[in-house]
């Protein structure tokens, strides 16, 4: 008799490892008018992980998460070639009446 072996679920990163830092730019601040907050997140973070992390860390209700990846650019600095790091951003839409003040530490 052959038994099916249940595969172990992949380990998810800890809650504080998912969210790296808030993105504080003019465009990101304009999105706060629409109840949206922009975070830089781990490259391997998924939308459900990001939603769970934001809800647990900030104590808010998240309605949607949109993500985008930016490929690292090749740059030349003082005659030496280099590559910028790849990044992943998450645009988190909050429920009505919810807010996160990401500029508090500035």
Provide a descriptive summary of the structure in words.
By secondary structure, the protein is α+β, with helices and mostly antiparallel strands. It is built from three helices and six strands. A four-stranded antiparallel beta sheet has the order 1-2-6-3. Strands 4-5 form a two-stranded antiparallel ribbon. The longest helix has 12 residues. The chain is globular and about 50 Å long. The N terminus is likely disordered.
* Average residue-wise pLDDT: 86
Give the spatial strand order of the biggest sheet: 1-2-6-3
Q: What portion of residues belong to β-strands?
A: 25-35%
Number of continuous helical runs: 3
Euclidean distance between termini CA atoms: 64 Å
Shape: globular
Profile the largest sheet.
Answer: 4 strands, antiparallel
Low-confidence stretches: 3-12
Helix content: 10-25%
Fold topology:
Elements (H helix, E strand, L loop, with lengths): L14 H4 E4 L3 H6 L4 E6 L5 H12 L3 E9 L3 E4 L2 E4 L3 E8 L12
Antiparallel strand pairs: 1-2, 2-6, 3-6, 4-5
